[in-house]
Specification:
Layout lengths: L23 E3 L6 H9 L2 H11 L5 H7 L4 H13 L3 E7 L4 E6 L1 H4 L2 H14 L8 E5 L8 E5 L11 E5 L5 H4 L10 H4 L5 H7 L2 H11 L5 H8 L3 H13 L3 E5 L7 E5 L1 H4 L2 H14 E3 L5 E5 L8 E5 L11 E6 L1
Parallel strand pairs: 1-9
Antiparallel strand pairs: 2-3, 4-12, 5-11, 6-10, 7-8
Helix pairs in contact: 1-14, 6-14, 10-11
Keywords: DNA-binding, Transcription, Transcription regulation
Organism: Actinocorallia libanotica
Protein name: Helix-turn-helix domain-containing protein
């Protein structure tokens, strides 16, 4: 029987091996599904390895050929991703004991998050070390951008169309990964990584501040009170978000000298990344108390379950329906 986890990915080594084809039970009072998900997708190398795995890479040497990654980093990340139930380690050569890493059901189920990240970066991020691959929808044959929709009514689900917030296992302290803040490596930045996505979710305080903003926080003191972070960290993260064009500063409604921070169109467009990640995490990490976040789609009144549709033909996107081609 699998023991409940104690630390999210990126922290100290763990003994638990997450079941690849069924949800991981979470202990009461510990890191919730959001924290575990951010610990996984907030690591740039994890996303790069999973991105190439979705394109068919399975063997250690293939990742070494595709990525400017050291032996130590690749070995560690493959170990963590296997522990997390994203890969199954399968022997393909007995004599020399060689293994390949096959995506599990849990690992394959992450594809909407990767597609949502790709869609946002393709539309909103101009400067990058490497051009993104072109993606087309097999059904209509056209290049597309993913649109977040509600599984119940199949209508678009923008941030303004959704209401909700913390559920029974949801608090700010339980929703951030316990791992220390990661530094972006120069090698990963040159590997075609999604640079601005990492600026938003690759730092524990950035991810928390982003979540607070989507829950309605706008003023400095709102972020400070909700996150419990030092003022210098809040100031730095707000500065970065403004520099990226995700936030804009406007005079406060109560006092003009108290600045408010509002989402720009670019910032609101990141919503599908946030919601597909939350949806994935709450399918695969279950707390006895209940979900970390609960959202309702205003149009139909149902709990929001995310789907991605093609902006060209309106058809439902599936992992097997996304074709990778030339760079865009």
């Amino acid at each position: 029987m699998t023991r409940p986890p104690t630390d999210p990915p990126g922290g100290t080594p763990r003994q638990v091996v997450h079941p690849p084809d069924r949800p991981t039970p979470l202990p009461p009072g510990g890191t919730n599904a959001v924290g575990w998900t951010l610990g996984l997708i907030g690591d740039e190398w994890n996303l790069l390895i999973l991105r190439h795995a979705m394109l068919g890479v399975r063997r250690y040497g293939e990742w070494r050929q595709e990525l400017p990654i050291s032996h130590a980093v690749l070995t560690r990340r493959l170990h963590v991703l296997t522990e997390m139930g994203m890969f199954e380690r399968v022997e393909y050569q007995r004599k020399a004991k060689r293994f390949e890493y096959v995506l599990t059901r849990r690992g394959r189920d992450l594809w909407p998050v990767l597609v949502a990240i790709w869609g946002w970066e393709a539309e909103w991020v101009q400067a990058r070390p490497e051009r993104l691959p072109r993606m087309a929808h097999r059904t209509c044959g056209r290049a597309f951008l993913p649109v977040l929709s509600c599984a119940a009514c199949e209508k678009p689900a923008r941030a303004a169309d959704v209401t909700g917030g913390f559920g029974p296992s949801g608090t700010w302290s339980r929703s951030v990964p316990a791992a220390t803040t990661r530094r972006r490596s120069a090698s990963a930045e040159g590997a075609g990584m999604f640079p601005e996505t990492m600026a938003l979710i690759g730092n524990r305080w950035s991810a928390a501040l982003l979540g607070a903003a989507f829950q309605g926080a706008q003023r400095f003191r709102d972020f400070e009170q909700r996150l419990g972070a030092p003022p210098t960290i809040i100031s730095d993260r707000l500065r970065v978000f403004c520099e990226l064009g995700v936030f804009t500063q406007v005079p406060g409604e109560d006092r003009a000298d108290w600045q408010s921070y509002r989402f720009t169109e670019k910032g609101r467009a990141f919503y599908p990344v946030v919601m597909t990640a939350i949806d994935w995490g709450q399918r695969w990490f279950l707390a006895d108390e209940g979900p970390a976040l609960v959202y309702t789609h205003r149009d139909c009144g149902q709990d929001l379950r995310t789907r991605l549709i093609c902006d060209q033909c309106g058809g439902l996107l599936q992992g097997t329906e996304v074709l990778v081609g030339n760079s865009v």
